[in-house]
Amino acid sequence: MPRGKRGLFTTAVTVVCAVTVLAAPGTAFASPSPSPTPSTGPTLAPGKDLEAVREKLDKLYRAAARATDEYNAAEEKADKQSDEIVKLAKKIVKGQERLEQLKERAGAAAAAQYRGGGLPPEAHLMLSDDPQEFLDGAGRVREGQHATKGLIGELTRTQEDLEQYAEDASAQWKKLEAGRKAKAVAQKKIEKQIAQAEKLESELRKEEQERLAELEKEAADKAQTAWLDSGILQDISGKASEQGKKAVAYATAQIGKPYRWGAEGPKSYDCSGLTSQAWISAGRGIPRTSQEQWKQLRHIDVQDMRPGDLIIYFDDASHVAMYVGDGAIVHAPRPGRHVTLAGAGSMPILGVVRPDAG
Prior knowledge:
Elements: H1 4-23, H2 48-115, H3 121-127, H4 131-202, H5 206-229, H6 232-235, H7 242-253, H8 271-281, H9 290-296, E1 298-300, E2 310-313, E3 319-325, E4 328-331, E5 340-343, E6 349-354
Antiparallel strand pairs: 1-6, 2-3, 2-6, 3-4, 4-5
Helix pairs in contact: 1-2, 2-4, 2-5, 7-8
């Protein structure tokens, strides 16, 4: 740790600046490059081949969604660690200022004792012509001794606090570095999966891409129909809370905006970026990722859900959407798509969570 106030200020400023650089988004975390130009290769056979492509694309984009959750979780942790480092840096500066003040007081006390000759009370008694004056002086000496002991104790505690702050800042810094590496690993996974999916789609002719979109819609409609045919909608009659209404209003206002992994608005979103920002707008902060939303928020039976509740999809909780009523959801589907309305049963439901307090 640098000695002196100037050294501590320099250290604190350096820490804050370094944290800012690490936390700020840069070109290293930009979205994947544009899709390759579609090739004019041979046409795939209709039906089974395109269905296989659809299934492969679904796997690739789901893998990208899992990696996006890893990226978002690492980013959320890094933000918290950055904030903690900044707080510790401020404490270090404050502590150093306090230490300097205490040292000045200790120096003044030492100087006063030196001016008094450093003689013991007995010597002052022998030299004093007035016993009462001596007794008054002796009382002041005792008070001064107590004050000096207290000053020394405060000096020691302040020094220990500074050492602890430095250790804590070092530990948070190591965690921040580990989080940065985790983000980089997750980013590579995301870009790899999306690049493979885009390459696969680029090899299709226009009519094949149109047919593929139809197959995707047919699969979603089939799943939604099966969900509705179970009679589940007859049991769902919950009314949105005031916060839920605000969250739904925010989410539906984003319809048409593009999906982008790691995005939290206002121009683009990933699935959990949309749901978390919608609830923040309603005055309720919730976890950033779909997996943490599933882990930390209150679980609700599907038949008890109401508008504003979040539906978590797939066994790995890799996707989340907001229920808006009448069997529908609003969500940010995947790369290449936009925030949209869809059937609540169009994907395999893991469960439902409620962000409302209480």
